[in-house]
Amino acid sequence: MMYLVLGVAIGVLMPNQSAINNRLRHAVSTPWVMAAISFLVGTACLLLLTWTTVGTVGLDPGHLSAQPWWIWSGGVFGVIGMTTNVLLLPVIGALYSTVLNLTAQVITTLIIDHFGLFDVDRYPADAWRLLGASIVMLAAVLAVVAGRSRVQADRPAPSRGWYLAGLGIGVCFGLQVAVNGQLTLVLGSAIHSAFVSFLVGTIVLITLVVLTRSPLRLRVPDGETHNPWWMWLGGVLGALYVTGVAFLSPLIGSAVTVVVVQVGLIAGALLVDQFGLLSAPKRAVRPLQVIGLLLMITGVVVMNAPKILA
């Protein structure tokens, strides 16, 4: 139960990270620069934490040469998912992006757990897990749909490729959870695993910034007098998220990790909306959104029913 609560707490951080990174995005030239800064800050924090807790940030070539190539790909999956989402949101909107992302994440991790892909411990997709996951996905759709302000009927319909990209984002994040979980077992530390993942992601993003020739300039958005200090902290929250997920995945499985984090994500988003945290506009939480959140919690309980009833 403690691990489930931890997963929810990790998820609660994510809407705050999104709000922080959104503010940073308005102060820099391109989304790629924003993402690179966020990853760089997270990498620096994880470097210090790894050095403090592990005693080194180095890797033993002899030990690690026997590992499969994909063990280092968690950061790449994270970057692909995040950068694709940056492009996707303006096209299909947050509603479809969230629903497609969640659906693909849950299905991907259920498959990974069921077949033991990426050398993870097997968690067969029995009736309890399938029922619980279905409840979570439907409840998340309810919570997200209930919160939309209006349907933009005048917006041209995006091509199907964009919706497939939305599913692809969820697949990437699901793969990242499983891969980083295994890297944690290899390195013996979730913090060290998260550092490696962030370092790989940072290298990829800096390369992307260079290739796109994104200008490196800082500005104060119109209507504001200064940039807040907290806009640099998105990478810190991202580091906490990746570390927490890397810690939980080997313990409770990739699918349950994704599901409990998503419960926290929806709860955190409702808090951000209700109280207008971090300069986000206030939006009153609707009863259907609360019902959706409660149903998501029910789904988590159902997925873990065999352990709870044992």
UniProtKB/TrEMBL annotation:
Protein name in UniProt: Transporter family-2 protein
Keyword annotations: Membrane, Transmembrane, Transmembrane helix
Record-annotated membrane-spanning stretches: 35-57, 69-96, 127-149, 161-179, 185-211, 232-252, 258-278, 290-309
Pfam families: DMT_YdcZ
Native source organism of the sequence: Enteractinococcus coprophilus
Record-level GO cellular component terms: plasma membrane
